[in-house]
Each structure stands twice: as structure tokens, then as C-alpha cells.
Amino acid sequence: MAKSSVLGYPRIGKRRELKRAVEAYWAGTLGAAELAAAGRDIRRANWETQRAAGIDLIPCNDFSYYDQVLDTVCLTGLVPARFGQPGDVVDLPTYFAMARGATDTPALELTKWFDTNYHYLVPEFDAGPPRLASTKPFDELAEATAVLGRAAKPVLIGPVSFLLLGKHHTRSLADHLRDLLPVYAEVLARLAAGGAEWVQIDEPTLVQDRTPEELALYREAYTYLGNLPDRPRLMLQTYFEALDGNWDTVVGLPVEGIGLDFVREVRPPTNLDLVNRHGFPADKVLGAGVVNGRNIWRTNLVSAFSTLEQLAQRVDPDRIWVQPSCSLLHLPYDVDLETALAPEIKQLLAFAEQRLEELVVLTRGLNEGRSAIQDALEADAALFQAALDSDRIHHAPTRQRVAALTERDFQRSAPFAERITAQQEHLRLPRYPTTTIGSFPQTPEVRATRAKWRKGHLSDAEYQAFIRTQIAEVIRRQEAIGLDVLVHGEFERTDMVEYFAAQLAGFAVTEHGWVQSYGSRAVRPPIIYGNVYRPAPMTVEIIRYAQSLTDKPVKGMLTGPVTILNWSFPREDLPRREIAFQIALALRDEVQDLEAAGIRVIQIDEPALREGLPLRREDWQEYLDWAVRAFRLASSGVADRTQIHSHMCYSEFNDIIDAIEALDADVISIENSRSNAELLQAFTDHRYSRHIGPGVYDVHSARVPSTAEIVALLERASQVLDPSQIWVNPDCGLKTRGNAEVWPSLEHMVEAARAMRARMA
């Protein structure tokens, strides 16, 4: 019989219990034993939920206190030397030091997991040799077996993807792989001894462009692992795209199962095309990812079951696992927790728990025939038809406005060389001007006051008065330490996307739709269900107030159209390009209103620009063309002397530097310190002409950088860029940090900028 399978489950807890436990541990108010207990409670709840839903193959080792790639670093003992020599097992202090940094010890680099908003910690391969240094997979298998009364399915990141996702390869990739494989062999042997019948081994890098040499690594790895005695059966799992040219390599590997994504159809050939064209190996199980693990709209059961029926013509149904397209890590827990969503929107949604129900229905249909689930198929079809007729979705003026755009709407009136002269005369900033990215710490007082207001315990007037008090104080302190371009602190914002989504038509926001972004950081991605437009100004009043408190420029702070799109759950009935242009037009209206209110610097952040890149290079240009145009549409309706900034963080930008320049922003700020200034190489090769703030310290680390450390980074930047181009700023916003770290760090940053100016003089 066909079986239902889950690739991974959300791990932050329905009420974000993990966030509170981990942060309490960091603060020293919770011990390691209590943290472990919190983790056990979340895992047990996840397993019991999946068992109750009727899932056949339930994952374990998909839980993490911070990141699954970091867990693999610990599993293989590849702890960089700067964190000290770990013992036989990597302990929690070392684990979190790699994630967050420690005194004078920078953390592992943080970057995006493929084209999602999840961030992973980048392995470093200058340590070694690998060794088994964690018991986590074995402990959690035993734990799951005790809870479920049967073997769970352990999940591992495959050795080749682990290697390709890393950096600092001191020897050939093949040599590193040969070092890793004995550790993986030991892991598989111990999992088999612990009762694991199957192990899911994730190799998502197989859906990317791979060289012949890299494909040879997969063949070597799985020939080695496939020939091990007494090992579990292996489900080689891919997701996020189709195998395309890597098909022949994958189906020839000596594994017992191959998991494929049948939802993500960026372009042909899709995985369904490949199965129909080539068939599927008769000796392997097919993991059929037919429900979406990345978006929250209900599965079109009619369409998904049709896919399964087609697959069943090529593959014996007894050898099919019905599963999500990827881990459910990227979804919130349960739509039934939402009490404020409009019913006609809510009934179209499926979070992780609802995905379990869909999997069980589809599996039953495959086993018992279409007639067994006909009622479910008909009810599902009726819901989708009602959505097509909904007035909530359609707004004709927005569609008409997009259709009427001309090339002039995407261009500033003068080139950068002329604009920057007008801006310098207008702003009168020194060399190495200092600023921050936008947000300041959301203190317990800020969060508590917002909670009181939301519960109705504070009036709107009282809440706005509190926010204005916070703004006035942060403006005063920025002036006191000598920052040149100020921000209002964003105390009124819970999230840089949700804040705008709550004010734009066509969006819905959730109460409990939390999704992990990295570590203890979770976000609530808004839901784009209809045409997007701006009913009223969103930020103008509060930025005008902040500017009234100082003679220094205060930045208007907006989130860019591509980031709002990429960090939301988008509708699926319109091209992403058109949705981005709708958002851009709403932001264009806001930018022009800010300028009219006297705001001289406006920042439109696009940290998710690169994250939206398709996984295959041949698809990049189409995406970059419309993504760049969306930013330009939002930013181009202002006078030459109004300075447009943008911020991008924690991604590799070297290979899209042309697109970054094409944004035509006057100033960009980027991550630079955590990647050890590697991103500057792009500007060496490209000769970037606009102004740039290469981040001078890592805001995701609790440490306070010294003035000398920041000066050293600025010196490196000054060897690549003309000093007249360089701005001085942190890597990212300061929202998640504490005031005790933020203000000393900013003081050192200002001192470093002054030291650089003195050298120039």
C-alpha cells in the first residue's frame, strides 16, 4: 500500500515555546536541563500530532535548538578552531557560540537556505578531521520510538549537500567527502542498531546546476553508503525544484527511495515530465511531494490526486509515499488557531496540521480509489470556485494601473553622478557618514506596552504617546553619540513586512502564523490573497514627527516590493511579477508622500532580493529583470536631491552585482563583517560606482566590537572602494539586540568613522 510521509515538521512550538526557552537559556535564567525538557515537550507534541493524523512515516531528528546545518556541524565534529577544542561531544555552550558568536569570536556565517527565508549557519571545512561528535540523531530516534511505539524516520542532511553548502574548503571536495563518509557510515550503523528501518537523507543541492565533477561526488558518496552492511534503507530526498539534467545521476544511485518535488514547477521539464519521459526505477520507492510545503493555500486535491494517478501508471502504488514537496518547517502550525481571519480566506488555508489531513486523504485515495475520496474532492473544488468569484480578491483600478505603466515610471530623472552632487549639497554629510539600518531594540517595555494596547488596556492615544516618547529618546541618543543620518527606531513595528501588510489592501495578517527564520527568530509572513493597493499613507505621520525633533536627516523607512513579496505567502493565480508591481505602486505613493513631508533620505530595504533567485541560473535573468524594475518603480518618483537607500543582508551578492547596480539606489548597505568582508570582492571586480555601507559589525552576535576592529574593516573597504563612497553602519537592524550592547557598539562605530576622517584630513 501507498504510505503517507512527512519530511520535517515546524519545531518552534505552537506558542513559540522554543523561542522562550532558548532565549531564557541565553539569558542565564534557564538551565540546560530545563532547555532539554522544553525540546522534548515540543518533539513529543509534534510526533503525537502526526500520529493522530494518521501519518505512516513520521520524521525524527528534524528538531533543532537553532539550525539543522549547525546540528550536522556538531554531528561531524567540524567545529572551527576559534571555538576551542570540543570534547567527545559538542556541548551546548560551543553549539550556541558557533550560532551567535562569543567574546572576540565571530559566529559562523549566516545565509539563506536556497530560495527561502530560512537562514542556515555555513559550515567551515578548515577544521578536521571529521568525527562523530553528537548523539542527537540516536537520542531522538529512541525518544520517538518510545512515544510512537514504532520506528520513526530519522532525517539527515546528506554529505554532498553539507559539503557544497559550506566554505573554506582547504582541500579538494572529493578529499573532504572521503573524510566525511566514514562518519556518515557510523551514523547509519547506529541508527540501524536503534531500530531505524528508513533514513531520509536530504540532498537538496541536486536540484541546482551541478558540474560533472560535483555529480561524481554524489555517485561516490552513495556508492560508498549504499554498499554498507547492516544499514537502514535510504530515501534520498530532494526538494524546491526538479532534477532536470541531474536525473540520470540520481536514479542510478544505489538507494532504496528517491523523493521528488511535484509542486514547484518553475519551468519544464518538471519532475512529472521526467517520470513520464523516462519512467522510474522499479527497485525504488518514489517519495511523491504533491502538497505544498512552502505556501499556505489548501492543496487543490483534484489536481494533486490527478498527479498521483499519473504517477501510479508508472510506479506501483505500493512503492509510492505521499508527502509534502519539502519540510513543513516553512509553514505555521495550525490554521485553527486563527480567530480573526475572514472566514472566506481562512477556509482556503492549510498550515502544517492541515497538510497532514491532506496527505492522509490523498494516500487513502491512492490505496482505495478515487471514489473513496470523491466527497473530499468535490468539497475542495467548490471552495476553489467560490474563491474565484470573491470580490475580496479583485480590484480593477490596481490591475489597470499596472497595465498603464510606461518606461518612464521605472527611471529617475537624472543619472546617479548628477543626483549625488545635488544630494551632497542638500544633506552636507561628512566623509564616512554614519547611520544605522533602521530598527532599534524592541525592549520588554516596548513589547509589553504593545501587548496592553492590543488587548485594549491602553487607548490608541496612550499607545501613540508612548511610541512618540520612545522615538524622541532614540533621536536624542543618536544625536548625542554623533550619528549623521538618524532613524526613528521602528518601535511601532513588530515586523518589517507585517507592518506594511496590515495597512495594504489585498493582504491578511495572522495571529499565530509563526515561521522560523533563524535560531529563536520567528516571523509571521502575511498572506497575499487579492490585488494590492494603499488605502492611506502608512509611515508619513510618524516619520514627519521624528524629523521635527532634529536638524539632522531622519530616514523614511520602507520595506521594498520584492522583499514584501518574498517574505509573504503569495497568491498563486497571478504571476509574481505582477504582484511585485502592485506592491511597488503602493510603495511609490508612500515614497512620494514622504518626500512631500520634507524627508530627505528614504530607505527601501530589499534584503530578500537574492533569496528570490530561481535555483537554476538560466532562470535568473527573467527574475532579476522584474525584481529590479519593481524596486525602481517604487523608488523613481522623487526629485534628484532625495537620496534613496536600500539594505540587503546575509546573502551572497557577488554573482548579482550587476542587478544591484541596476536598482539605481543612491546608497546600499550590506552584510560584511560576518562573512569576513568577502562580499567586498564583488565591488573590486565590478567597480561599483554608487555609495555603499559595508556593515562593520555583526548585530546577530551579543559581543560589542572594538573601535580598532571596526577601523580595520573600514580600512579593508577603503582599499576596494573610494572613501567618498563608503558609509559606516551595522550589518543589519538592531531590533533583536539589547540597549546594553547597541549603544556601546554604535559609539565605537562613530569613533571609528571619526578616526578614518582624521586620517583623510
Structural commentary:
With 761 residues, the protein is of the alpha/beta class. It folds into two domains: 11-388, TIM Barrel, CATH 3.20.20; 420-760, TIM Barrel (Alpha-Beta Barrel). Strand 6 (198-202), helix 8 and strand 7 (233-237) form a beta-alpha-beta unit.
Question: Roughly how much helix do the residues carry, as a percent range?
Answer: 40-55%
As laid out across the biggest beta sheet, the strand order is 1-10-9-8-7-6-5-2
Low-confidence stretches: none
| Radius of gyration from CA coordinates | 26 Å
Strand content: 5-15%
Distance between the termini: 78 Å
Structural class from helices and strands?
alpha/beta
The largest sheet, given as strand count, sense and whether it forms a barrel, is: 8 strands, parallel
The CATH class label of the largest domain is: Alpha Beta
The averaged pLDDT comes out at 94
CATH-defined topology of the largest domain: TIM Barrel
Outline: globular
Descriptors:
2 domains; globular; TIM Barrel; 27 helices; eight-stranded parallel sheet; alpha/beta; single chain; five-stranded parallel sheet; 761 residues
Give a short synopsis of this structure.
The protein has 761 residues and is an alpha/beta fold.
Strands, helices and their partners?
Elements: E1 3-4, H1 17-27, H2 32-53, E2 59-60, H3 68-75, H4 92-100, E3 110-112, E4 119-121, H5 136-148, E5 153-157, H6 159-164, H7 173-193, E6 198-202, H8 212-226, E7 233-237, H9 247-251, E8 257-261, H10 271-278, E9 285-291, H11 301-314, E10 320-324, H12 343-346, H13 352-368, H14 374-388, H15 396-403, H16 416-427, H17 444-454, H18 460-481, H19 498-501, E11 505-508, E12 515-518, E13 521-523, E14 527-533, H20 540-548, E15 555-559, H21 561-566, H22 576-596, E16 601-605, H23 620-635, E17 643-648, H24 657-662, E18 667-670, H25 680-686, E19 691-694, H26 707-720, H27 739-760
Parallel strand pairs: 1-10, 2-5, 5-6, 6-7, 7-8, 8-9, 9-10, 15-16, 16-17, 17-18, 18-19
Antiparallel strand pairs: 3-4, 11-14, 12-13
Helix pairs in contact: 1-2, 2-5, 7-8, 11-13, 15-22, 17-18, 22-23, 26-27
